[in-house]
Write a structure and sequence with these properties.
The chain is an alpha+beta fold. Strand 1, helix 1 (about 10-20) and strand 2 form a beta-alpha-beta unit. The chain has helices at about 10-20, 65-75, 85-115, 125-145, 160-175, 180-185, 185-195, 200, and strands spanning about 1-5, 25-30, 50, 60-65. The protein has a four-stranded mixed β-sheet, covered by helices on one side. The chain contains eight helices and four strands. It has two domains: about 1-75, Glutaredoxin, CATH 3.40.30.10; about 85-200, Glutathione S-transferase Yfyf (Class Pi), Chain A, domain 2, CATH 1.20.1050.10. It holds the Pfam family GST_N_2. It comes from Pelomonas parva. This is Glutathione S-transferase family protein.
Length: about 210
Amino acid sequence: MKLIGSLTSPYVRKVRIVMAEKKLDFQLVLEDVWGSDAILKMNPLGKVPCLVMEGQDSITGAVFDSRVIVEYVDTLSPVGKLIPERGRERCEVRTWEALADGIMDAGILARMERTWAQRSDEQRSPAWINRQMTKVTAALAAMSQGLGDKPWCSGSHFSLADISVGCALGWLEFRFPEITWREDYPNLARHMDKLSQRQSFIDSVPA
């Protein structure tokens, strides 16, 4: 399998970590979606990550959107089941993923408004940026409350919930170092430190 993505995308990182935890072989193909339209051949939405099945070279052989990809990848190997099959436990893990993805979604929108070269300073909207960052702040508080003093986000073992939270927090450290979530939420800092010791996280640090 080929995973089309970038080294800075938190969504790509989530897929890379899942595939590493599942001990699946794949080739990472780097793609700059801002500098090239090549991704459109595999994903008409022009986004990464995009997982391409072996021997395929068109949209019909591709799986895109990180949530869809990790759902599929978790079925490919019995090693380290990351998403419960059914019931309340499954819903809880996917809700954690949605919360983490929401932080990244809002953060990316705020960052693009701040930095997109095709906007002048006069065209940028501080109100829009503040609205998105309010979502980030609220989601961090919800994460901290949900984690409490538990060893893992959901249930009694490592899951997609922890991977998603780790990717969101790692991306905030990378793109928004001014956000003081480590000081504000020590339990999230401890959890991130624990996750950062896993080889899958070490091998996928954004750069």
